[in-house]
Fold this protein.
Amino acid sequence: MKFQVERDVLAQAVAWTARTLPNKPALPLLAGVLIIAEKNKLQLSSFDYEVSSKIEVQANTTEDGRILVSGKLLAEIARSLPNQTVQANLNGSRLEIKCGKASFALPTLPEDDFPSLPELPKLSGTINSELFIEAVNQTAIAAGRDESLPMLTGVRMEISENKITFAATDRYRLAVKELFWNPKNTTEEKALLIPARMLSEAAKGFIGTKEVSVGLAEGSEKLIGFYAETKQTTSRLLDAEFPKYRSLLPTEEQEGVEISVSELLEVLKRVELVAERNTPVRLEFGKSELTLRAGAGDEATAEEIIAIEYSGEPIEIAFNPTYLKDGLTALNKQTALISFTTSARPAILIGLDKDGVKDESYKYLIMPVRLAG
């Protein structure tokens, strides 16, 4: 094998295929990226029996071949190379890489036992890339990290005619996003649970594309595929029951406060400086001001006031500051509407458009922290 390729092209291709490689693979070869060079093209792929990735890029191939090398190491090397043409050559059992005055030699892995990639499921519909990326970013932040609770580590994807709903929760917060897509079959209705990490990494890789195609495997095959331009990825679905989240969303009108997202974030970041890890920040809503407090007793304390318009009864409610910041940032709006009923019930964050209209396509529910006394 021998090929030449531009450094940026190689770095982006390797980053796409190596993005979901396992940190502790069951077999060493599952940490590899398979490179196939033929007909002036490079095809890079990875697969750990759960998630697969593949991309095809242009290259000058003077000698065809295929090899398997450590994906994360290759990604780090490609990212660090000078911005020049990369020359790669298989010399015995080592892949030699030269770029400018830099040179590396990577040992190859036995690729004969590398698993075949699953077939990409047939097209079910398409989504505007920007809308898809935003929806994933807005919901995946609320997914859990505890692998012992697999039902919380995924993003639920509900398909109903021309609408998709993404939802994720870690029990302390819930994010729900609705958006429209272009289904191939408008009668198809499904509910899937997709690993949140895979979905987030795919969304990052699709930045700069125009449209994301979605493929759903038929029958008992629990597989979903996403592809855009020359990039494609598949994932096994999580076989777990997602919580019945819709009952958590309030149906009655709640007290609400409109507030500048940037101002609240700025104040929140200052006040939380004195908060110990896993301790809340208190928000006291009064008639004309919102007071944020953190710290107590003999420890460091902080307090800051924001002017607001609020017509309800005074209320003090406490939140995990990280969860609150995540929700405010995910709104992607200049103004937020924070709605609540009591200090012990969840609050809802909704964004407001520039003309003051509620954007109810995205809702971020956050559980309050119980205050002592």
About this structure: The mean pLDDT is 93. The chain has six helices and 26 strands. The longest helix spans residues 7-18.
